Amino acid sequence: MTNRALQIFAWTVLLAIAAATLSPIGLRPHLPMGVDIERVLAFFVVGLLFALAYPRHIWFAALVVLLGAFGLELLQELRADRHGRVHDALIKSAGASMGLGIGWLGAQIMNRWRFLRGRYR
């Protein structure tokens, strides 16, 4: 997958999470596991995607994803049928941080592998 495609995919996933987070509670998709696990997994995935899409700009990726986690909780306060909680933002940011870290590490390993592969051909 090209870097541009990864960037588009990362932003699309973040927008999908935003839509699910800000939609009426009855329209929010649910997984059979608990909501905290859903939050961790959703932001783990988006953190991973942003880290892979922007490996040279990991601070930008972290800023976008972590602001997204806290910002979405704040935006829920604007809706009468939703509520933002610090606990939820912390759970989301924990998942995002894990995804960012693993994604960045994976990008570094892949870059090193490409470098070594090209060097010894």
Automatic annotation (TrEMBL):
InterPro entries: UCP033367_VanZ, VanZ-like. The keyword Nucleotide-binding does not apply. Keywords: Membrane, Transmembrane, Transmembrane helix. Residues 33-104 form the VanZ-like domain. It comes from the Bacteria. The chain crosses the membrane at residues 6-25, 37-54, 60-78. The keyword Transmembrane applies. This is VanZ family protein. It comes from Devosia litorisediminis. The lineage of its organism: Bacteria, Pseudomonadati, Pseudomonadota, Alphaproteobacteria, Hyphomicrobiales.
